[in-house]
Amino acid sequence: MGSGRLVKSFLFSISRRKPMKPDGEQLTLNRCLTTLDLVALGVGSTLGAGVYILSGEVARDTAGPSIIICFFIAALASVFAGLCYAEFGSRVPLTGSAYLYSYVTVGELLAFITGWNHLLSCVIGTSSVALAWSGTFDDLIGGHISKFFAENAAIGLPGLAPYPDVFAAFLIILLSGLLAFGVKESTTINKIFTAINILVLLFVAISGFVKGDICNWQITSDKLLNYTTENSLPSNTFGNGGFFPYGFTGTLAGAATCFYAFVGFDCISTTGEEVKNPQKSVPVAIIASLLICFLAYFATSAALTLMMPYYMLNKKSPLAVAFEYINWGPAKYAVAGDLCVLLGSMFPMPRILFAMARDGLLFHPLTKVTAKGSPAIATISSGVVAAVIALLFNLKALVEMMSIGTLFAHTLVTVCILILSNEPDSRAVDPEYSFLKPPSSPNSKSSKAVTILTILVIITAICLLLTQALDAISALEPWSLALVSIFAFAVLLITFFIWRHPQNLTKATFMVPLLPALPILTTFINVYLMVQLGAETWLRYAIWMLVGLLIYFLYGIWFSVQRRLQFYPNLKASRLELTAYRAE
């Protein structure tokens, strides 16, 4: 009996939820951001690597000129996730993004895991962008920085970078100081950088359409064969030419990669407590920033593949090489616009740390703010960690880990939307529940049924993807067609039952359309992308998660604010009371 109570207490502890409007929680951040600030932040943190690096690699090796379709498919998937973030941003106008949304919907342990995943993507994203910018800048000045450190400070240890990238680390520390100084000041600089970046990409797009050649979208197989023969390459290295040189399957694979170019918009939802009108500004900024980024990616990737044949594009500096190809060499210095992406990618990290620390799941000093309402300790701490990683590590193998963290966060947010839309309604007076005839208003039983159905959808999607039937269907294998048909019917049936259950009538400034189909489709896409990642990536991810779970079970579960309120229900969650509780 005692062990039963212990297990029940443990399960209650990891599943306790935070109220949407916590009683007594002090909002210490400064509400100073406008819708324009948020749009600039979203564009600045999203628009960059996809154009300056990713576009060349995907076009050259995966999709060819059809990269413009890759970005369209990726943008569509990102918009689906963005709609879910937008609704939560209007319902829960606090800092924390996916971590907070999970906490108020599915409980403390999953919220911690979501926040820990988000931190992973932010830290690695910041480090990788800094390294990419450092490498580009070094190329522009003739490689003097890398040459100096390679000769005088070589590391030579397995798993680490060949030499420390001091410039990238310095860049992160510098911008961390700027972010710690003040939110409004840093967003003002971000708006300037973002405006420069957009002007640069507008120049790239115009240049491509002026100097481009439509023949580069119609490359013949003979021309491709001549190029591979001259360079002693296998004849099938670059596909078969034309607009779809690698076939439509190559375009779909490219779309999976291009999805990561839209990672970053969720930084908008971390600013809920720093926005003047979050219920309106957060949803508008998320959708607007995704639209702007899609138009920029579409135009610049089209221009890039028009300027030169896709098989000649450079993976590391596609724009710079393309400008040299059309004899506009000095224009390659435009790639310096990528710096705004670094500032934008750094912005969410301290806010997630701050939110988790304020809830007691991470260490209390991270909640310290400056007189201007900026989370200074969290900003400097996250900047130092990102700087150390950029200084010592070769991040080529770690970039996919960033994708796991982001995709997991996106998946949980979409699942939370399904659960939230079927939360018990205060007007629900009918305690009866029938699976075939649910009550007219959500109650605890119907809400629990929707949660179970949502879990079944996720399990069904994972089972389908692990069988690889979807990948084999292009070969018209009978077994794959049968499996896909069975799983598709199961998903449609579950979706139908979820749809039949009543939704909560509580309105928000923005609400996700096409419930429950859109969140379920988004979940399927995200799970599909995660399954495509390699075993080594999942192993590294498991190590990161092990560290996080140790922190939670050794610290967070004991110092959680919700745990304190569980034992002291009459106390408010003020910072002074929290400090006094910890002092005990």
From TrEMBL:
Membrane topology: Multi-pass membrane protein
Domain of life: Eukaryota
Main location: membrane
Keywords on record: Membrane, Transmembrane, Transmembrane helix
GO cellular component: plasma membrane
Record-level Gene Ontology MF annotations: L-arginine transmembrane transporter activity; L-lysine transmembrane transporter activity; L-ornithine transmembrane transporter activity
Record bears the keyword Transmembrane helix: yes
Transmembrane regions listed in the UniProt entry: 36-54, 66-86, 98-119, 166-183, 192-210, 243-263, 284-313, 375-395, 401-420, 449-467, 479-499, 511-529, 541-561
Domain Cationic amino acid transporter C-terminal, chain residue ranges per copy: 510-558
Any one of the GO BP annotations: L-arginine import across plasma membrane
The protein's name: Cationic amino acid transporter C-terminal domain-containing protein
Species annotation: Neogobius melanostomus (round goby)
